Amino acid sequence: MKLKPMRAKQIIAVIVLVAVAFLIVVPPLLNGGVKVTLSATTSVHADHLYLTIGEISAQRTDLSGSSAWQSISNQSTVVDLTMANTNEAVALGTLSLGQYEAVRVMVTNATVIINGTSQKVQLESRVFTIPVSFLTQFGKSTVIVLNVSPEVQETADGVNLKLSFTGVPANPSP
């Protein structure tokens, strides 16, 4: 059976249209929403303690090496750590569906204001890997709470900051 030339062009156009629609619709469905919040667990003796977070990523359990780390957000976010036990959203993003075992936070800057005077802070570390197990699922949003304990130390050379993180999934893996 021979197809008419016009009919063959219509079939090819429909196939191309379906393929393009598939490529546009399916990838977002294979991702799950992720929200990361940050909460200081202890108060600090300062007017303000501003922490700038440059990137937040998560590590998949089924991958290894640098390919295991997937970015949740690379937008710079500034949080004030002087208020204890207050959750503040620091990242909204998507991750491919699957099981994750850690969150990595990259801190780009810290500034403290003590008695109205702003001082740059020396960070003990800029990259923090926090063990936290969570699952991203189709149609569900995952919330990760990162608790941080800031420790400000004033020295003759300036101000040093030590950060300790723990992570808790607000909706734990089954």
Structure description:
With about 170 residues, this protein is mainly beta. It has one domain. Helices cover about 15% and strands about 60% of the residues. It has one helix and ten strands; from the N terminus they run H-E-E-E-E-E-E-E-E-E-E. The radius of gyration is 23 Å and the shape is elongated. The model has no long low-confidence stretch (mean pLDDT about 85).
Cα end-to-end separation:
55 Å
**Unreliable parts:** none
User: How would you describe the shape?
Assistant: elongated
The helix/strand series, from N terminus to C terminus, equals: HEEEEEEEEEE
Protein structure class: mainly beta
Nearest-integer average pLDDT: 86
Q: Estimate the strand proportion.
A: over 45%
Can you tell me the number of structural domains? 1
Number of strands: 10
Number of helices: 1
- Summarize the amount of helix as a percent range: 10-25%
Using only C-alpha atoms, the radius of gyration works out to 23 Å
Which descriptors would you attach to this protein?
174 residues, mainly beta, ten-stranded mixed β-sheet, 10 strands, 14% helix, 59% strand, elongated
List the helices and strands and how they pair.
Elements: H1 5-29, E1 31-40, E2 48-60, E3 69-73, E4 77-80, E5 88-96, E6 98-114, E7 117-123, E8 127-136, E9 141-155, E10 158-169
Parallel strand pairs: 1-9, 7-10
Antiparallel strand pairs: 1-5, 2-3, 2-4, 2-6, 6-7, 6-8, 9-10
Short précis:
This protein is mainly beta and 174 residues long.
